[in-house]
Design brief:
five-stranded mixed β-sheet; about 450 residues; signal; Methylamine Dehydrogenase, Chain H; about 45% strand; five-stranded antiparallel β-sheet; DUF4374 domain-containing protein; mainly beta
Length: about 450
């Protein structure tokens, strides 16, 4: 096993560094494991989500472990993050981001007493992550469970968002001696904060009321969830993905089965975060806020955005340089993969416009934690998607909480491990389609891996 050595330190110091979510025992003899890498190699950080109460829930804390890209490609190399990983401060599954070169990890703690705390770490190898400076809390701006993302501006800025909703009801007097309350609309108030990742400080914060058309609002439609802010190529607009929800105007009860609108995105001026508008797709009819992974990426002057919960199967949509949806671009995953009800779970293109996409579909088996997931190789220009058959699949291969891929040139690193079972890192050469089976990922009961950075 190359480039690996042990450095035994006192665990009491390790506990001070690990913080927050999981306890340490001073009399434990668990070693601190570090890694080394060649100058030409890149750090690949792997994240593991420990089970809370149920298999695959990831609520028992997040552990991270870094290895060189050379070791990540080596099937003879083995890592055990659940035993030796660095415990990331977070009450539940941490929301992680990485610098483009892989040398820095950014975290905002999710929920609990530390929710909304931003910290960053230098990647030193193995379980050794060194905190850089003091952290900062953004909880007063966007709450203790913020949705946040690192913008693609040279690792300078992060953006976090929230939305709160309130039904507007008018008292229309009395009818047959009873008060007749009339539903008018549901008001959606969004908050957006930008964070200086370099200096750990707040850059800007704005709140806005976001409205749909009066006709749609009268029918009970409103924006109920937002996430995944993305900069356009010009760097003067911020796109925020949105989930459109609906209530029954007669009862204000939320509806689950309703006619979907075109996919919606909120557009703000950047960096001012002013002048909100809402744009709508004529192609996709699903949500654009994603879940735990980045849902939209700039490529070749446009932003490409995945949608979810689309009745026609997930699409990759295109927002052009005019900051409007380009409805001439049609990339439907059902058609491309030959499946029904495709649902994009997490995706990432390399600089060549080719990438890796995690998905489930109507034919997915039901595993111990949820529907089985798969990986596909996608090409944004050719609008093609092909299942990656070189990666093994089984019913317990759960990808709903998948967060990230590590990108190194044309290579994309991903993690494959069913819930509670060992797996491997796989490296996909997006240019050739070649797939390399890499380092072994050792698992523990009920837990799973959530990505590579």
């Amino acid at each position: 096993m190359k480039n690996r050595f042990l450095n035994i330190k006192t665990l009491s110091l390790a506990c001070t560094a690990l913080l927050f979510t999981m306890s340490c025992s001073d009399d434990s003899d668990t070693p601190i494991i570090e890694e080394e890498k060649e100058e030409s190699s890149r750090w690949i950080t792997i994240a593991a989500a420990r089970m809370g109460e149920n298999p695959g829930d990831g609520n028992g804390g997040t552990l991270i472990y870094s290895i060189s890209s050379d070791n990540a490609k080596d099937p003879g190399f083995s890592i055990q993050p659940f035993d030796n990983g660095f415990i990331v401060p977070s009450n539940r599954t941490a929301r992680l981001q990485a610098s483009e070169d892989g040398n820095t990890i950014f975290n905002i703690s999710y929920a609990g007493d530390t929710g909304g705390n931003y910290t960053k770490y230098t990647v030193k190898g193995g379980q050794n992550f060194e905190q850089i400076g003091a952290g900062i809390s953004i909880a007063e701006y966007v709450g203790t469970a913020p949705r946040w993302i690192k913008l693609f501006d040279g690792d300078q800025t992060g953006a976090a968002v929230y939305v709160s909703t309130e039904h507007e009801i008018d008292d229309n007097g009395t009818v047959n001696d009873a008060t007749d309350d009339i539903y008018r609309r549901t008001n959606a108030t969004i908050g957006v904060v930008t964070l200086d990742l370099v200096n750990s400080s707040i850059k800007n914060f704005q709140e806005h009321n976001i409205a749909l058309s009066p006709e749609l609002e009268a029918q009970g439609y409103y924006i109920g969830r937002i996430d995944m802010p993305t900069l356009n190529a010009a760097g003067d607009k911020l796109y925020i993905g949105a989930s459109v929800r609906k209530v029954d105007p007669a009862t204000t009860e939320r509806e689950s089965d309703f006619e979907r609108l075109g996919s919606q995105t909120i557009v703000l001026d950047y960096p001012s975060l002013l002048n909100p508008t809402v744009i709508s797709s004529g192609i996709g009819h699903g949500d654009t806020n994603g879940y735990r992974s980045i849902n939209a990426f700039e490529y070749n002057g446009s932003v490409y955005q995945a949608n979810q919960n689309d009745p026609e199967g997930s699409h990759i949509l295109k927002i052009g340089s005019n900051n409007q949806y380009d409805d001439s671009y049609v990339f439907n995953l059902d058609d491309a993969l030959g499946v029904q009800d495709a649902y994009i779970l997490a995706w990432r293109p390399a600089a060549n416009g080719k990438g890796v996409l995690a998905y489930r579909h109507a034919g997915s088996a039901e595993g111990v934690a949820g529907a089985q997931g798969f990986f596909a190789l996608v090409d944004l220009e050719a609008k093609t998607a092909t299942k990656i058959d070189a990666i093994p699949y089984e019913a317990d291969f759960y990808l709903f909480q998948y967060q990230s891929y590590a990108v190194d040139g044309h290579d994309i690193y991903l993690t494959q491990a069913p819930v509670g079972k060992n797996g491997n890192i796989y490296v996909v050469d997006t240019e050739t389609g070649d797939v390399t089976k890499g380092a072994e990922l050792v698992n523990v009961a009920g837990s799973h891996y959530i990505g590579a950075w």
